[in-house]
Every structure is written in C-alpha cells, then in structure tokens.
C-alpha cells in the first residue's frame, strides 16, 4: 500500500545547511529563517539547531510569518552580519518568494531555499523533495483511500528523491564559485 507523502523533511533542512556550507565554507554565522508559528516550525528549528551543533556551525534562528517579521528578520541579519541564510519549509515563504530573493540580493547574502521556483527567481540554490515523486505517491495514497483503505492504517511516506537547483548567475553576482562536487550533484543549473 503506498504511503502518504510529506514534502518537508528534517533531512532536507539538514542537507540545505550542508550544501550552503559547501558553497560558502567561510561562513561563520548562518541565519535560519522559519515560520515558527506553523505546525512544523518548532520541529524544523530543533532539527536545524541539532544539525548545526553536530557540524560546529554557529546559527541563529529567526521566525517570519508576516511581512513585518520578514523586515525584522532581514534587519537582524544585517545587524548580526550573517554570512548566509537557510530557509525552512513553509507555504508563506512561497507566497513572498520574490521579496525574499530580492532582500537576500540587496544584502548580497547567499541563501538556500526549499523550492526550485526560488532559484529560478534569482535565489542562489534550492533543495527540496522531488515534487513528481511526492505527487505520484499522494495520488496513489488517495486512490487507496477511495478504494476503502483507512488513512490511519496507511504509513507516512518520506520522500527519498530530492532536487538541487543552482543559479550560476546569482553565484557570479555574489562572487561565489560553486564547487565541482556540488555542481556534479545538481539536477539543474541555471546559467
């Protein structure tokens, strides 16, 4: 029986941090922005703090769930002179995608986002579960329910396929060289 799909995963958040560190190895302080008011916000925060601690990366966590909180977060990022930004997963960030990309560009700060649309909009990188796989699994799960399966009896599916998108134009604008090992695993490179 196919399981339900979840698009957000602690693994993808940890991997975003790892990829950003590979691209910006000199980063001493990284901001993590998440919507801590969302259902999975506190878990994302905990997972990111654990991942950062495990690799000795200094991070600070900011919550953003409104336009004014975004402004406050970027004021804090500028004041604390963060070297890079990792975004948590969240629908709100998708809604304000262009604003987030523009603010990072204004500060000339490398950032890694959840969904590919951020990289195509000018963000440096995105790393997320493969939407086709998630959609297929969700469709299979829905089919099982329509055939009479009880949702509570179906296992939860955690995506095993992820996509890395890199925007080389943005990397060049930031004065970054993407390491060959990171380029080699990219699913798409925007030139």
Give a description of the structure.
- The strands form two sheets. The chain has a seven-stranded mixed beta sheet with strand order 3-2-4-5-6-8-9, sandwiched between helices. The protein has a two-stranded parallel ribbon with strand order 1-7.
- The chain contains nine helices and nine strands.
- Helices cover 48% and strands 20% of the residues.
- Mean pLDDT is 86; it is low at 1-9.
- The termini are far apart.
- It is α/β, with parallel strands linked by helices.
- The protein has one domain (7-129, 163-190): Rossmann fold (3-Layer(aba) Sandwich), CATH 3.40.50.
Layout of strands and helices, then pairs:
Elements: E1 4-6, H1 10-23, E2 29-34, H2 41-55, E3 58-63, H3 67-80, E4 84-87, H4 91-95, H5 97-106, E5 111-113, H6 116-120, E6 125-129, H7 131-146, E7 156-158, E8 162-167, H8 168-173, H9 180-185, E9 188-190
Parallel strand pairs: 1-7, 2-3, 2-4, 4-5, 5-6, 8-9
Antiparallel strand pairs: 6-8
Helix pairs in contact: 1-2
């Amino acid at each position: 029986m196919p399981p339900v799909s979840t698009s957000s995963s602690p693994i993808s958040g940890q991997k975003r941090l790892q990829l950003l560190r590979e691209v910006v190895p000199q980063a001493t302080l990284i901001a993590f922005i998440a919507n801590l008011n969302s259902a999975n916000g506190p878990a994302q925060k905990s997972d990111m703090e654990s991942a950062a601690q495990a690799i000795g990366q200094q991070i600070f966590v900011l919550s953003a769930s409104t336009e004014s909180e975004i402004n406050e977060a970027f004021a804090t990022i500028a004041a604390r002179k963060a070297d890079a930004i990792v975004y948590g997963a969240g629908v709100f960030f998708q809604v304000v995608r262009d604003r987030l990309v523009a603010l990072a560009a204004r500060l000339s700060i490398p950032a890694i986002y959840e969904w590919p649309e951020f990289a195509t909009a000018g963000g440096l990188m995105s790393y997320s579960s493969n939407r086709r796989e998630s959609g297929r699994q969700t469709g299979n799960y829905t089919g099982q329910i329509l055939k009479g399966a009880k949702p509570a009896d179906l296992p939860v599916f955690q995506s095993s396929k992820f996509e890395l998108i890199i925007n080389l134009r943005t990397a060049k604008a930031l004065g970054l060289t993407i390491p060959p090992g990171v380029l080699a695993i990219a699913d798409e490179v925007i030139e």
